[in-house]
Design brief:
The complex is a heterodimer of chains A (439) and B (349).
Chain A: H1 2-21, E1 44-50, H2 53-57, H3 60-71, E2 75-81, H4 85-92, E3 101-103, H5 113-116, E4 117-118, E5 121-122, H6 123-127, E6 137-138, E7 141-142, E8 145-146, E9 148-157, H7 158-163, H8 173-186, E10 190-192, H9 218-221, H10 234-247, H11 260-268, E11 272-278, H12 280-291, E12 299-302, E13 313-318, E14 321-325, H13 331-343, H14 347-350, E15 354-355, H15 367-371, E16 375-378, H16 384-394, H17 402-411, H18 419-437
Chain B: H1 2-12, H2 35-56, H3 71-96, H4 114-120, H5 129-154, H6 160-172, H7 175-186, H8 191-198, H9 213-238, H10 243-250, H11 255-266, H12 268-283, H13 287-292, H14 302-311, H15 316-340
The chains are: A alpha+beta (439), B mainly alpha (349).
Chain lengths: 439, 349
Amino acid sequence: MRRTRVGAGAAALAVGLAACGGGAGGAGDSGAVPVPADPAKVTGSITVLTNRTDQVQDGTTARYAAEFAKVYPKVKVRFQGLTDYEGDVKIRMNSKDYGDVLPIPNAVPTSQYPTFFAPLGTASELGAKYDFTERGTVGSKVYGLANIGVANGFVYNKAVWKQAGITDWPTTPAAFVEALKAIKAKTGATPYYTNYKDAWPMTNWGNGLGSPSCDPAANDKLTTTKEPWGPGQDLNVVDTLLYDIVRNKLSEDDPNTTNWENSKSLIGTGKIATMWLGTWAVVQMREAAKKAGANPDDIGFMPFPARPNGAFCAVVRPDYLYGINANSKNKPAARAWIDWFINKSGDAQQSLSISAVKGSPLPSTLQPFQQAGVKFIHLSYAKNQQVLDIDKASEVGLNNPDYPQRIVDVARGAAKGDLRSVFADLNKKWADAQGTIGG
Amino acid sequence: MAASRTAGGGARHEKPPPAPPRRNGADRPPRRASSRRVKRGRVQRGRVQRGRVQRGRPGSGAVHGQRWYAPWPYLAIPLALLVVFTYIPVVDMVAYSFTDWDGLSPQRTYVGLDNYVDLFTRPQLFQVFAVSLFYLVGAMVQIVAALYFATLLSFNVRLRNLFKGILFFPYLINGVAIGFVFLYFFQPGGTLDSVLGIFGIGPRLWLGDPDLVNTSLASVSVWRFMGLNMVLFIGAIQSIPPELYEAAALDGAGRWGQFRHIIVPGIKPIISLSVILAVSGALSVFEIPFIMTGGSNNTETFVIQTIKLAFNFNKVGLASAAAVVLLAIVLLATWLQRLLVPDERVELS
C-alpha cells in the first residue's frame, strides 16, 4: 500500500521532470525530400500549422484541403490555426510535435534550420524556380520556401489625399511630410496612424531598409557599416521620416490607445489617411472599407518617398517560409503539400500578394507601381545570420517594436533626448555588438 | 461571526458538562473561565474519550489515534501540483540562468556567472524599479482605503453586504479584461474625460502623458486589488470579540479610539502580511502595464523587461538570471520587513 503510493508520487515527479527538463527534439539532417513524382502513391496524414486563423475560420483551408485531395487522394490534411503563432510554435519546437508543415517562426535562427527542418532541395535547383530561396538556405540546401513576397509601402486613402490636393506620390521624405500637413489642414482626417499601442505594426519600419538607397545588399551591409543610423544611411532616412511625422503632430493624438482592428475601418472610411505597412494590408483594408460602407477602391498603396537614380524603389521581402518538421513521419506528403500550396493553391493571387514562383504576374494592387516605373528589388540574405546575431547582441531589435516606439516617444516629447541622441545610442549599440560578433 | 460563535459556546457551558474523566480532572476549567479556554478543554476531553473507546475495541490496530501516513494521500495531489508547476520550473530557471540558452536550440552552453555579471554591469536594467515606486505608493493607498472600508463595513451599516460585494467584485474580474476596460476608460474622449468634463476639467492623455501614465496604471491596480485587502481585513476585524468595543465605549472611546486601539492592534498580522504582499507585488508588477501599454512610454517594469529579453531577444539564459535576481530582491525585501516588524502573537482577550 505505502510503496504504491510513493511509487505513484515518484512517477508523477518523473513525468514532470521529463516534461520540463526534456531536450529539444531535433532529428539529424537527412537527404532532401523530393516532390513526389506520382501523386497517387503518396499516403499518410499531415498536420499543417498556420498563423492564418482567419482562413481556418472562414473555410479557406478546408477548401484547399479538398482541392489538394483531388490531386493526392491518399493524403489527409489537417490544419491547426494558432493565434499567437510565434509564441506557441517556438515553445512547441522544444518537443517533436510541431506539425508536419509549418511556417518557420522568425525566432528560429537560420543556422538552426537543419536541426528542426527537413531539406527541400538544393539551392541551385529550387533557386531557379522560386524567389527568396536564399533566405532559407543553409549550406547549399534549402530548408524553407516562401509562398509570397511582401513589399513595404504606405497604405493610403486616395480620396482623402485627393481632397487635400495631392495626386502624385511625394518623391522625398520632406515632400511627404508636406503632403501630410496639407491633409491635416484641408481634411478632417488623421494624416498618419502609428498603431503604436498594438506595437507589431510598427515593426514594419525596420523593413524600410533598402528603399531609400535601392540597394539589394542593404541588409548584408549592416554587418560592416559601423553606423547604420549615420547621415544618409537607409535606417536614418526611414526613421527620420517617422520622427518628423510625429514631431509635426501629423499622427494620432494619443498613440497609447491606438487599435489595429479599428484602424482598418478608420482608413477605409477616410478618418485616417495613411499607414506604413506592407502589400498584405491592402486586402484587409479594402474589406474593412466595404464592411463600413465605404468605397474599397479608395485604398491605395504607395512606395517610400525617395527616388534614388530617378525611380521609386520597393523592397520585396519573403513572408513566412514553409518548412517540413524534421521529425515528420510523412515527409513526402508534406513536401507534396508545400509544392501544391505554393504553385497551385492560388493563395498568393487571392491575397493580392507577390507570388514567390518566378515569372508570376504582379497582383493588381501593384499595377500602379508598374505603371509608375517603380523598381522592385530583392534583398540579399547572404549575411543575414550575422545581422541577426548583431541585432540580438546589441538588443536594438530591428524587427521589434521597441525601437520605433522609442522614436515616437522622443518625437512627441514623452521620452528624454532628441533624434540625434537616439541615433547615437543605436549606432553605439550596433557598433559595440559588431565588435563582439566579429562581423 | 467567529466572535459570536465563541461567545455562544461560552454561554452553553454556563452549566458544567457531565462528569469529566479522571485523568482530566486537573485540566478542568474553573466555572468562570473565558470562553476560549472552555472550548479547548472540551476538545481535549473528546479526544481522550475517543482514544479510550478504541483501545477497548478488539482487533483495532491504532493505538494513538491516526496512523502517521493518514494526511499524505490528502496532500499528495496539491503537493504534486506544487512541485511540478512551481518548484521544478524554479529549479530549471536557476539552471537556465547559468547557460546561454536561446529558448530553442537543443544545445545550451554552461557560461557560469556570465549572465549575472552582464546584468549587474548594466545599471540601466535596474532603473525600471523607479516605476515600481508608483505601484508601491498605490499599494499603500490601497491598504489605507481597504482598512477604511473594512472598518466601516464591520459595523452595522445598511446594505453592507451589497457594498462588500461591489468593492470586492473587481478582484474577481480577469486581469486581461480589466486592462481592456481601462484602455477605453482612459482613451482621449473616453469615459474618464467625459466624466471629468462635467466638472470642467479638460481632457488629458491619461496613458499618453509619460508623467501621468504610471499613476493611471497604478490606480487601476488599486481599483483591482483593494477589494481583496478589504475582505482580508473584514475577516480579521470580525474575529475581535465584540465585548471589547462595548467595554471601550463604556470607557468613553469614540469610533476613532476604537479603531486605533482595538482594531489596528487586533489585525496587525494581517496588515503586515498585506504590506509584504504589496511590496513584493510592486516589485513584480506585470499584468496591467503589459496589457495596457506593453511597457512602452516609460511604463516598463522589471518583469516586462525580463519577458522582452527572453522572447524578443531570445536571451532566455539572461532573462532567467534576471528572474532569479528579482526573486532574491523580493525575498530580501520580505526578510527586511520581518526584521523591522516582527510577527508577534496578538492577545486581545
